[in-house]
Write a structure and sequence with these properties.
The chain is built from 4 helices and no strands. By secondary structure, the chain is mostly helical. The longest helix has about 35 residues. The termini are far apart. Keywords: Signal.
Length: about 110
């Protein structure tokens, strides 16, 4: 094999492996997150519905708003709505753990977006 095609094939293979590994670790993190929250079956169903509604709202804001300020305000409004619904759904201990995890995820997202 020639050096250039071999190099390209190696880079593609490593990229696929990295993507696969990142996807696996995020799934593990979510499973760990749910087990830490100790959600009941009903809570998990409602949790998933609230989360899906939240991400749908974020997607809508992202596609409809052109101003960064309006986009930020839209994100904050959806976050506030989601958190109030979660507070009603979860026990106080579960909500404290949820809030702590959300802050950590937000910090991680900010670090990744720098």
């Amino acid at each position: 094999m020639k050096p250039l095609p071999t190099c390209i094939a190696t880079v593609l293979l490593l990229s696929l492996c990295h993507f696969s590994w990142a996807q696996d670790t995020s799934e593990i993190d979510m499973d760990e997150y749910f087990s830490e929250l100790n959600l009941t079956t009903d809570q998990k169903t409602t949790f998933d519905e609230i989360t899906a509604e939240y991400y749908s709202g974020l997607q809508e804001v992202q596609t409809n708003e052109t101003s960064k300020v309006k986009m930020y305000k839209g994100y904050k409004a959806h976050k506030k709505t989601r958190d109030s619904k979660m507070k009603k759904l979860l026990s106080p201990d579960q909500f404290d753990l949820y809030a702590t995890k959300q802050k950590a995820l937000e910090k991680q997202a900010r670090e990744e977006n720098k």
